Amino acid sequence: MKLLSKCFFALVFMSCSLFLKAGVEPEVSIRSQRGQSFSLHLKNMNKETFDIQLKDQFGIVLINKKVEDQDDYLQFYNLKKLPTGNYTMRIESERKITFQPIHVNHEKKSIEMSTKKEIYKPTLKFEYPNLDLNMLHFEEGAVGIKIRNKIGSPLYEDEFFTTGSIGKRFIVTTFPAEDYIFEIRTKNYTYEQTFSISQDNKIQKANL
User: Most exposed residue of 67, 117, 148, 153, measured as fewest CB within 10 angstroms of its CB?
Assistant: First the structure.
C-alpha cells in the first residue's frame, strides 16, 4: 500500500460485509442454436437496465442494444454473415457484467462457445464520514484502487491480490470539499465513480 500524501488526508480501512440487493438474482442464459446462431435469454430482470453488445476480436462494436423495464427478454442472433473469427457477447446490468466468447466457423457452419465469465461490479455507499466499498472478486490478478482529485492527480493508490468478498471503509473527514474520482481496476474491468464532498460535510455520488 502506498500513501502519496499522508498530511493531505487519512484513510482508515475496515472489513465490511458484502451487501447484495434482496430478491431473485437476474440470470443471463446464452445457448447455441442451429447453424451459426445463438439465443440470449435474460430472466428475472426485475426491471433492471441491461446493455448488450457484440464485439469482434478488434473491439469493434457490431451490436449495441439497451433493454429496460422488462422482466424477461429473449432474442435470437444469426452470425452467418460475419467473417470467421472470434467475437464476444457482453451483457452489463446494474450488478454484474457477463462475457461470452464466441467463435464463428464457416467451414463447419457452426459457432463454438467457450466458458462464460461473470464479473460482479463493486458497490460504493456514501454516508459521511464514510465511503464503503463492497465487491466480489473471483478473477486472476490484482485489484487496484486509486483515488484522484478533480484535476486527475492520484492522491491514493493500493494494489493487492485477493479473491472472494472484499470490503473496505474509507473515512474522509480530512478530505477538502471538492470532486473526486474513485477507480477500481481488475484484469478485465475498470470501474470509475465520481463523488463530491460539500462545504457542509456531505458526501454524495455524482454522475460520470
Answer: 153
